[in-house]
Amino acid sequence: MDITRKGIACLMAAAVTGLATAAAAQEFDWKAHSGETVTFLANSNPLGQLLIDHADEFKELTGINLVIDSYQEQQMRQRLMTVMNARSDEVDVFMTLPSREGMQFAAAGWYADLTPYIQNNVSPDYNADGLGKALLEAATFDGKLTGVPLNIEGPLLYYRTDIFEECGVEVPSSLEGLSDTAAKLKECTDATPFASRGLAAAAPYTFSGFMHNMGGQYMVDGKSAMCSREAKQALSLYSDLLKNYGPPGVVNYSFQQLTALYRAGRSAMSFQSSNEFGAVMEGGDRMDDTAIVPLPEGPGGSHPTVIGWGLAISAHSANPDAAWYFLQWASSPEMQAKLALEGIAPPREAIAESAEYKAWLDESPVRKQWHEALAELAETGTSEIGYPIIANPESRQHVGQAIGDLLLGTVSVDEACATADAALNELIARD
Predict the structure, then answer these.
(1) How far apart are CA 427 and CA 389, in angstroms?
(2) Domains of the chain
(3) Are strands 93-96 and 310-313 parallel, antiparallel or unpaired?
(4) Element (H, E) at 93
(5) pTM to 2 decimals?
(6) How far apart are CA 150 and CA 138, in angstroms?
(7) What residues contact residue 295 under an 8 Å CB cut-off, 6+ apart?
(8) Rg for the chain (alpha carbons), in Å?
(9) Where is pLDDT greater, at 27 or 61?
(10) Is the Cβ–Cβ distance between 278 and 377 less than 8 Å?
(11) pLDDT averaged over the chain?
(12) pLDDT confidence tier of residue 133, bands split at 50, 70 and 90
């Protein structure tokens, strides 16, 4: 499938023109769909939970009834698959990762086209242009806008400054240096030296930074490259860190377990999502003893992972007009300003530059470090997690399985990568 980005400039120009039209501003009515009902399929990650927490504000503003169906990420996707394959109208709005399933969902026809809405039906203060051209491009497939961006995120290295000082170690300056640092921490402290995702379905999110910084690529000349020298080095380093210095049962770890472990003070280094910042700092115990940096650079340089969640309307929704009001509310400057103060990095540059947000950052050094690290991700990062094919979600399963097998010690790195390559080349051939 040829994915194009043509037409986005025209889309944005039309949106801005529409916003400037007084007549359009007068015609917009937040109560236009009062009494109607919208069903929201939510991921119960920090971003999704915050939207749920503010849901009463949406009902008060619009009069629209919001039915929330919330699951952990894998269960949410299973539910979505069931609904979409049945062409059911049970879901109106769902959270989506364009970097993961965008090509697949677009090819399946699961996304409603938001172009007419963002051109012709926005509130006078929405400012579609403020969402950023690059973010809208990332959600545009074959000229159709499939979602509105909600955040910017990526894995960051959270580390305990007090433990590092007590053990006399410095934050590693290179990717390979993580092992030496973890070994020194293991000799000095009872805290887990290094923690990251080990669950097969979740691990590619954190592993991809290792892959790219090591100089590896998922595909070379149209073939899977998991057995390249660089990819094998990344697989070995990532799995060895978790086997030798990670928490017990790390093969079952995703973001929830990482956050709980670090927040409780039981890990010295935690490589996990920037989106977890608010949850990590909950209770305040980690506010004064944590520092945050991007993943150290490797032989291939620094290519951190950066992605963003979006909201989409189901192509099978029976109520897309009311659903658009929910998307507009959730991605509005006002709502995203509130989320920013809860540790959700804003996709709108104007919010990041606002006096209120800057004051919030100034209240704590670790908040500034989190923001600065995210700025580096936005500047230098890549959204490639898994293979740039329609079956990207399935490709991630094979990458994660290779990591999981290595963590269990059932295969060598050569066996793990060869098994992954064989399965992945079949996927590529089907694309």
Answers:
(1) 8
(2) 8-152+307-365 (3.40.190.10), 155-306+371-430 (3.40.190.10)
(3) antiparallel
(4) strand 93-96
(5) 0.88
(6) 13
(7) 155, 156, 157, 175, 209, 210, 213, 271, 302, 304
(8) 22
(9) 61
(10) no
(11) 92
(12) confident
Give residue 430's Cα distance to chain centre. 27
Q: In this structure, which amino acid lies at residue 310?
A: G
Helix residue spans in 310-364 (DSSP H): 320-330, 333-340, 349-352, 355-362
Running DSSP on this structure, what letter comes out for residue 336?
H
How far is Cα 102 from Cα 312, in angstroms, rounded to an integer?
Answer: 10
Give the Cα separation of 47 and 309 in Å (integer). Answer: 9
Burial label, 380 (beta-carbon count in 10 A; 0-12, 13-18, 19+): middle
- Single out the residue of 403, 201, 355, 205 nearest to residue 295, CA to CA: 205
Q: Which CA distances in Å does 91 have to 19, 76, 98, 300, 315? A: 29, 11, 18, 43, 10
- Written as one letter, the residue type at 58 is F
Tokens of 339: 């989320």
Q: Cα(216)–Cα(273) distance, rounded to whole angstroms?
A: 21
- Separation CA 228–CA 43 (nearest Å): 35
For residue 183, give both structure tokens: 């070994």
DSSP state of 289: T
